[in-house]
UniProtKB/TrEMBL annotation:
Top-rank taxon, per record: Bacteria
Organismal lineage: Bacteria, Pseudomonadati, Myxococcota, Polyangia, Nannocystales
InterPro entries given in the database record: 6PGD_dom2, 6PGDH_NADP-bd, HIBADH-related, HIBADH-related_NP60_sf, NAD(P)-bd_dom_sf, RedAm-like_C
Keyword Hydrolase included in the entry's annotation: no
Pfam family, one: RedAm-like_C
Span of domain NADPH-dependent reductive aminase-like C-terminal: 164-288
Parts of the chain that traverse the membrane: 49-71
Annotated signal peptide: none
Protein name per UniProt: NAD(P)-binding domain-containing protein
Keyword Membrane: yes
């Protein structure tokens, strides 16, 4: 491995699928980058892209003012950074975690004299550096100013607030929306298979309707934000009817009906609570009531 002697713009710890994509995106756009990975062989393909490979975490951290971490989780991040001198550094955590983990790492890094920026990547590795990659960050504004240039090579980067947990909270909320939608899609794919049609056509249709679905979700978010659920274009009861219909189709086609069964039961709770004529976003009131019973916020 090459050793690092000059100061680079940023160091990146972690060259898994995501870390390698981040490094490649920044290096190929001319950013001077030092990298380190536990399994050193993963750094080799990046050398041709112009990165410098550090022999240790301590050397990688010493090499640059900005230290970006993208490993499996926060526990691994903390274990790595224990070995380094962080005073005066800007630490950017891009591994996925909870808001509480972000707050704890922010306090830990700050106590060691670092400026801390938490981040979340809304992309898969092949999208990094392209128009569909979004990076959300939160924490120290000074840390954001120091890291914005290199992060901008990896995706559209946004600062979402000073609370260190803000980016992780938005990330988990997006993941909830994404995987909820994917489970619905997988049921839709079985439905299409049961009707002896091609699932590729469903994929094309979903991509074409994605902006309209995004707009529906944006309107739902406005409803929840303002607490307005009256006079909806489509009521919560209509959502229940759709899920009930899917359940009927699943029985007719003899396919698994777990997803429509779960969704119909959720909307039924909204109808039972008296919100059938309101906007589907009124489901938030059902979920809040359930949280209150458990003593949560
Ligand atoms: N892949 C995605 O689509 C995606 C999307 C958004 C966010 N992310 C987030 O990005 C982070 C990395 O994901 P990935 O896809 O790159 O995962 P990955 O391919 O499994 O790579 C994991 C990385 O973490 C390192 N690592 C794990 N435990 C370690 C430890 N104890 N000490 C040192 N290094 C350790 C691994 O090192 P070795 O190479 O030595 O094993 C490797 O570099 C995760 O938090 C993930 O949630 C991923």
């Amino acid at each position: 491995m090459q050793s690092q002697s000059t100061t680079n713009e940023a160091s990146l710890l972690g060259l898994g699928a995501m870390g390698a994509a981040l490094a490649r995106a920044a290096a190929t756009k001319g950013r001077r980058l030092t990298v380190w990975n536990r399994t050193s062989a993963k750094a080799a393909p990046l050398v041709a892209a112009g990165v410098t490979v550090a022999a240790s975490v301590a050397a990688a951290v010493a090499a640059s003012p900005v230290v970006i971490v993208c490993v499996t989780d926060y526990a691994a991040t903390r274990a790595l950074l224990e070995a380094a001198l962080l005073a005066g550094k800007t630490v950017v955590q891009l591994s996925t975690g909870t808001p509480q983990e972000a707050r704890e790492l922010a306090a830990w890094a700050t106590a060691r004299g670092a400026r801390y920026l938490d981040g979340a990547i809304l992309a898969v590795p092949s999208q990094v550096g392209g128009p569909h990659a979004n990076l959300m960050t939160s924490g120290s504004r000074e840390a954001f100013a120091a890291a914005e240039g290199v992060l901008a090579e990896m995706g559209a980067v946004r600062f979402v607030g000073e609370p260190p947990g803000a980016a992780a909270a938005l990330d988990l909320a997006v993941l909830s929306s994404l995987f909820g939608a994917l489970l619905g899609f997988y049921h839709g794919a079985r439905l299409i298979e049961a009707e002896q049609m091609g699932v590729d056509g469903l994929g094309e249709l979903m991509a074409a309707t994605a902006p309209a679905i995004g707009e529906m979700i944006r309107i739902d978010a406005e409803s929840i934000h303002h607490g307005r659920y009256e006079a909806p274009e489509a009521s919560l009861e209509i959502c229940w009817r759709s899920m009930d219909l899917l359940g009927r189709h699943a029985r007719e086609a003899a396919i698994d009906g777990s997803f429509p069964g779960f969704a119909a039961e959720m909307f039924q709770r909204g109808i039972t609570a008296g919100f059938g004529d309101e906007a589907p976003a009124a489901m938030i009131k059902v979920l809040r009531a359930a949280s209150a019973q458990k003593g949560a916020r």
